[in-house]
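Hi R.,

Here's the chain you asked about this morning:
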Amino acid sequence: MEHWIQAARLRTLPLSMSGIIMGSFIAKWRLSENGGTWDWRIFALALLVTLLYQVLSNFANDYGDGVKGTDKNRIGEAEQRAVASGKITATQMRNAVVLLSILSLIATVALLYLAFYPANIREFWIFVGLGIACILAAIGYTVGKKPYGYMGLGDIFVFIFFGLVSVCGSYFLFTKSFSWDLLFPATAVGMLSMAVLNLNNMRDIVNDELAGKKTLALRLGFRNAMIYEIILLQLPILLMLAFLMYNGFQQKGIYYPFIVMILIFPFMKIRRSIMAVKEPKMLDPFLKQVGILTFLMAVLTAFGLNYFN
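And the predicted structure, written out as tokens:
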């Protein structure tokens, strides 16, 4: 069991929950403003679904990189993968991926049934298709003959699924509507998710080059990938400020939602620390830190919008 828990990579889970928390509690605030109701059961199921997707993705990445030999020389003891190290066989991991795919689909259908059935049948089937796309994306990063992670497309997929789909999709589950201002927080969460992936790929840049895994960080080179990383860590807090300003909280004399701006200081600190890194392997601790900051951004936004007004 210990090896399976390590393969699940629990430190990635806060990041995966961030978009759901962000979208769900923006929906809660907006529904309360308009006299609507917010269903905590939808939120709980949405969290379960995204956690299943994340663990599925981690297992699939472990399996895909393991059978391709990419993890053979991975940097850092904490990043030894289960299949590559022989702790879990490729067959066992493949079976786990299949099982988690089935469980993810069942949980997705249960969530969508609760959110849409019977009043919104069309939306139910659209989101079922979107859920299947999420499952395929979780698997396809490293698995298959042409995994998109090996072609430098991981950043785009992470932005779409961790940012746009997670935030806007969870908002839609509650409100059955879309609002353009959601693109501010959705882009913020998406960019921070890209920042975590880019840190991961910068850390593994030497090993990935040897294995033929052409990530965006490898294509850019370490120095340019560092510039890209700083941009990804700079813009999200500004996007959150734009979201709050767009909704006119300052004009209404409501300042509690701006509590999220306190994260300016830890973001400044982590950017300086990352810029000081010269060796790729020294980037590993920052993956967890950026993930936690993303989670805090979602939680502080939720509290600021809903519990301090």
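The radius of gyration is 19 Å.

Let me know if you need anything else.
M.
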